Amino acid sequence: MSDTVGAGGPAGRGAPVERLAADVADVVREEVRAVRAQLTDAARPAGVGFLLLAAAGGCVVLGIGAASTTTLRMLEAMLPRRMAAAGLTAGYLAAAVFLGGLGLQRLRTAGGSSARLADQVGNAVSSTAGRVMPAGTSAARDGWER
Length: 146
Description:
The protein has helices at 15-78, 81-110, 112-145; strands at residues 5-6, 9-10. It is mostly helical. The chain is elongated and about 95 Å long. The longest helix has 64 residues, at 15-78. It starts with a strand and ends with a helix. It is built from three helices and two strands. Strands 1-2 form a two-stranded antiparallel ribbon. Helices cover 88% and strands 3% of the residues. Helix 1 (15-78) packs across helix 2 and helix 2 (81-110) packs antiparallel against helix 3 (112-145).
């Protein structure tokens, strides 16, 4: 053996520790590669699944839009155009108010943070409606006068 002094002390003394550290580092690298490969293999099908779900959601939105247009055209066959549009809009708003009210009621029933969230949402909706309703009424009045 030589008497050269390295980072770990005399040669031969630090070498086993350095080899052990290098071996541990190699094992960790191999394990990280294996886990990365497993995650990639698992994420690939899930990614395709999420993409397909997003595409299905887009088709649902388009379908709802087409159904709304069809309903509007059917109403226009029976009512003046503006009345049909106003009726459909009123129907959507009534459904939104009804469903939103049911949702807020369920949140309040759940209690705790859900009830606080329901109160915050209810207050925000009331505040917004208080500002929007006068403007909407004015716009509707102007539309009927034309």
